[in-house]
Amino acid sequence: MTTQPTSKQQYKSRYTDRYITAPQYIAELVCENIARKNEQQLVVRFWNTSQWKSTFRYQLILANGLLRLYDASVIVRTIRENGRILSLKSPVLDSLLDKPKKAPLKPSPVKDIDTTKKPPRPFSDKKRKNLWSALNGKKEEEAN
Could you read off the pLDDT of 4-21 as tens digits, one per residue? Predict the structure, then answer.
């Protein structure tokens, strides 16, 4: 965590004075929704308390998985607009996120293969025997 935004830590935490990563911020938002439903207040660094530690970590794991499929800004906006999302594994969240999906990755360009060259010939048994006999002959000479 840093006090200045970076390329990876661009979200300001509401529970510290530092910037955090997108998965951490998304997990914070979900924990806020859970706390609001249970009529509780989250304390500073709530993820270190015994009550919230496992919940925060679980949501953090789920957030990392969602970020492989969707853009962070889309997930954050969806959670903010729908305060009823209490887990990132919710089917409601999946249906809401399916609308503005992250753009698919472009396929990598195919390497040009020179088809005019002939492929190298594999070793034949005759060549192998000659190599082994040459190596064995050298070993015998070195031993003497």
Answer: 777 788 888 889 989 999
Is residue 74 a contact partner of residue 99, using CB atoms and an 8 Å limit? no
**d(C-alpha 47, C-alpha 70), whole Å:** 24
CA distance 68 to 62: 10
> CA-CA distance, 6 to 2, in Å (whole number)?
8
Please state the pTM of the whole predicted model: 0.65
Task: Name the amino acid, one letter, at 7.
Answer: S
CA distance 41 to 81: 20
Q: Tokens 């887990």 label which residue? A: 87
Q: How confident is the model at residue 138 (pLDDT cuts 50, 70, 90)?
A: low
As given in the structure block, the two tokens for residue 62 are 């789920």
Give the amino acid at 24: Q
What sign for the dihedral angle of Cα 113, 118, 124, 129?
A: negative
In whole angstroms, what is the distance from residue 5 CA to residue 45 CA?
19
Rounded CA gap, 18 and 11, in Å?
9
As given in the structure block, the two tokens for residue 31 are 């924990």
